[in-house]
Write a structure and sequence with these properties.
With 380 residues, this protein is an alpha+beta fold. The protein has 2 domains: 25-129, Rieske [2Fe-2S] iron-sulphur domain (Rieske Iron-sulfur Protein, 3-layer Sandwich); 142-377, Alpha-Beta Complex (Naphthalene 1,2-dioxygenase Alpha Subunit, Chain A, domain 1), CATH 3.90.380. It is built from 6 helices and 19 strands. Strands 12, 13, 14, 15, 16, 17, 18 and 19 form an 8-stranded antiparallel sheet that branches. A 4-stranded antiparallel sheet has the order 2-3-4-9, with no helix packed on it. Strand 15 (215-220) and strand 16 (224-229) form a beta hairpin. The radius of gyration is 22 Å and the shape is globular. It binds FE2/S2 (inorganic) cluster and fe (ii) ion. Residues 167, 173, 177-178, 316, 320 line the site of fe (ii) ion.
Length: 380
């Protein structure tokens, strides 16, 4: 166990950063990938777990091993609101309580319990609370609940989550790394002046460009960010509102759950969805983004020669992957030389350090508002 308040990257049980994470609801899975009476193995914050959806449609998160002789519980059979181990039939309910031991003449099921964490579903994602005691109020993003098209996307990167979190509030990189990506209003052609402040919900970052209004991007602990993204298809009437949740699988890998709220009038939604499906189908025929990133990282392709793909929708993902993997699996922050453009990253680390210090010293951490304002594009 580490008590280093500058160690943001290790998040297993017992670490300070792990304790910080475990104060919040965390996005862990895309709801539509888990049908009723299905179970999946899942790893979050270094903990191996079993996620299953009961017959009623409710989602549960319990330990990964059967308490009997330890086989992988996600291979079990979902039975009502519980899961039955395939090996000798012990059944566990959604709270992890053993409720049936068909192979035992004298059941001692009452004495057997595996761990469990509460789950909720919101905006097409499953959220879990992995901390102790009663969970806080779940997050709310009212501007994602309006009339539009909502969809989510998952991306696993074989690097520590904190690099991706820092990247998501690094406004300046848009002008360099993403100069060859689709952004309206030429916001990727100007280097902004960065202003940032701590707020009741987290961090507000403002990117001021000579060319136009302020672009506002927001951060909410532990790893949620909200930003505006250029519309991709002609059916959209404005910039997309985006939410990103960066959640460690373990210290060397993380998953990003992105939620997109696209502004599409009802009569154009079919066309929009069709175009989106066609785009993804087209992309699936091309070399995977990971392959292109690896080609650049290994020197087989130049960054500037990355081919334009489809309408360019995945260019930013490839470019980000290269820059973030280029920092190493866990970036060495001791060799950095930070400047004014890194104001939001410095503030982010100050907040994490302060909160982890409070946890270490047994003092109450800050209570954060569970809503964030809508981001602004810097164009409209
Ligand atoms: S290992 Fe699960 S019931 Fe025996
Ligand atoms: Fe980026």
């Amino acid at each position: 166990m580490t008590a280093d308040v500058d160690d943001f990257v290790h998040t297993g049980p017992g670490t300070l950063a792990g304790k910080f994470f475990r104060q919040f609801w965390l996005a862990i899975f895309q709801s539509r990938d888990l049908d009723a009476e299905w179970s999946k193995p899942i790893k979050i914050l270094g903990e191996n777990l079993t996620l299953f959806r009961g017959t009623s449609g409710k989602v549960y998160l319990v330990g990964n091993r059967c308490a009997h002789r330890g086989t992988q519980l996600s291979t079990g059979i979902v039975d009502g609101e519980g899961i039955r181990c395939i090996y000798h039939g012990w059944k566990f309910d959604g709270s992890g309580q053993c409720v049936d031991q068909p192979s035992e003449p004298c059941s001692f099921a009452d004495d057997v319990k595996i761990k469990s964490y509460p789950c909720i579903e919101y905006l097409g994602l499953v959220f879990a609370y992995m901390g102790e005691g009663a969970p806080p109020s779940p997050p709310r993003y009212p501007h994602f609940e309006g009339d539009g098209v909502l969809f989510s996307h998952q991306l696993v990167r074989p690097i520590n989550f904190f690099q991706n979190l820092e990247n998501s509030i690094d406004e300046v990189h848009i002008g360099f790394l993403h100069a060859n990506s689709p952004y309206d209003g030429n916001i990727n052609k100007h280097v902004p002046l960065i202003k940032t402040e701590e707020t009741g919900f987290g961090i507000a970052q403002y990117g001021e460009r000579e060319s136009g209004p302020m672009r506002a991007t927001f951060y909410q602990p532990p790893t949620t960010t909200s930003w505006a993204q250029a519309p991709t298809y002609p059916e959209e009437t404005g910039w997309r509102d985006m939410l990103g949740f960066r959640v460690p699988i373990d210290d060397d890998t993380h998953i990003t759950h992105t939620v997109t709220f696209a502004k599409v009038p009802p009569e154009k939604r079919d066309a929009f969805m069709q175009r989106r499906r066609a785009e993804w189908e087209e992309l699936s025929k091309l070399p995977p983004a990971e392959e292109i990133a690896d080609a650049v990282l290994s020197g087989k392709m130049r960054f500037k020669d990355i081919p334009w793909r489809g309408n360019g929708a995945d260019m930013t993902r490839i470019q980000d992957r290269i820059a973030l993997m280029g920092q190493g699996v866990i970036a060495d922050r001791k060799m950095e030389r930070l400047g004014q453009a890194d104001a939001a990253i410095i503030l982010l680390r100050d907040i994490w350090r302060r909160e982890m210090m409070a946890i270490r010293d047994g003092k109450p951490p800050k209570t954060w508002a569970n809503e964030m304002p809508p981001p602004t594009s810097g164009v409209e």
